[in-house]
Automatic annotation (TrEMBL):
Keywords: Arsenical resistance. SMART domains: LMWPc. This is Arsenate reductase ArsC. The keyword RNA-binding does not apply.
Length: 171
């Protein structure tokens, strides 16, 4: 059985999808292989995202902002799950990728859009990474290797419904 291959997509591929890719690769060693991409990549990883990962002890080597174009066509790695992480509540357009995989949406505010003091920006990235980690821990609890597409889709959609409030009430 190959690792479950997960692609995280957002618009810029500089923060949320990068945080998701690196964290799942770190936590899901062997079981999961994570990637990230953007519909309009910025071309660079947000330094605050790299700082959040480093603070959590998660390797950042090799992370890059890239187009989703590399995940279509004959040379693309086969995917099992595609997760959009844009914030549809903020009317941010979510990219759509077509293929034979399970799709889900785990919307969350873009910490790269945070403004204010360095402390406020750091807090936005910390909060985003905490929610991403919470959702990824729920993913790791799923028996993805034996799940059919429909039950997996329902479970993934349920994970996407987890909010920061859920995280804080569990703390």
């Amino acid at each position: 059985m190959h690792p479950c291959r997960v692609l995280f997509i957002c618009t810029g591929n500089s923060a949320r999808s990068i945080l998701s890719e690196a964290t799942l690769n770190h936590l899901g060693k062997g079981r999961f292989e994570a990637y990230s991409a953007g519909s309009k990549p910025t071309g660079q990883v947000n330094p605050h995202a790299l700082e959040a990962l480093a603070t959590a002890g998660i390797p950042t080597h090799g992370l890059s902002s890239k187009s989703w174009d590399r995940f279509v066509g004959e040379d693309a790695p086969p995917l099992d799950i595609v997760v959009t992480v844009c914030d549809s509540a903020a009317s941010e357009p979510c990219p759509v990728l077509f293929g034979d995989f399970v799709r889900t949406h785990w919307g969350l505010p873009d910490p790269a859009a945070a403004t204010g003091s360095p402390v406020a920006i750091h807090a936005a990235f910390r909060q985003a990474h905490r929610l991403i980690t919470q959702r990824l821990m729920a993913l790791l609890d799923l028996p993805v290797e034996t799940m059919r597409a429909e039950p997996l889709k329902r479970a993934l959609d349920g994970i996407g419904a987890l909010t920061a409030a859920d995280d804080e009430s569990a703390a």
